[in-house]
Amino acid sequence: MSMTPVDTNKTIDHVSRHDPDKENPTVWKLGVLDVFQWGEIEDVQATISVKADQDGQPAANFNASERDLMIVRYGLKGVTNFGDFQFKTKKVNRRGRDREIVADEFLGLLHKDLVEELAEEIERLNSFSEDQSKN
Fold first, then answer.
1. Of 127, 115, 37, 123, nearest to 79 (Cα)?
2. β-pairing, 27-31 with 11-14?
3. 3-class state of residue 60 by DSSP
4. Which end of the chain is more exposed for a tag (fewer CB within 10 A), N or C?
5. Which residues of 55-81 are buried (b: 16+ CB within 10 A; e: fewer)?
6. Is the pLDDT of residue 135 over 50?
7. What is the pLDDT of residues 15-65, one digit of tens each?
8. pTM
9. Cβ(91)–Cβ(98) under 8 Å?
C-alpha cells in the first residue's frame, strides 16, 4: 500500500476519560490538521533568541500550554452534550490562509486537563498509524 494524503475532513468522536456521565457523555469532534497548521503550532511552541537576556545568557522559551491551546483551536470541530453552551468558532487569516478556529470565549470554558487531553488525541489522530508506518 502506498502513502495516502492527509484527509483534513476526517473527524473522530472522542469521549473524555474525565467525563462523569457514562450514559450520556459529552462528545468532542476532533479533526486532522494540515502541515501549515502544524508549522504555525511548532513555530509558537519554542523560541530561541540569539540576543542575550538581561543576565547575558541566550534566551529560550518553551510554550507547552500555548501549543495545546493552538492544537485544540485548530483541531476541535464540534461538541455535543456540553450543557447549555454553544460551540463557537471564528474566522481568521493565518499565514495567508482563511481558517475557522475555536473562539476564545468557548475555549475559555474548558478545564486545563481537558485541553491537554484533547490536544493529545488530536496529535495522535495526526500521526502515522502502525499500518502506515510499516509501508
1. 115
2. antiparallel
3. strand
4. N
5. eeeeeeeeeeeebbbbbbbbbbbebee
6. no
7. 999 999 999 999 999 999 999 998 888 877 666 666 666 676 666 666 667
8. 0.81
9. yes
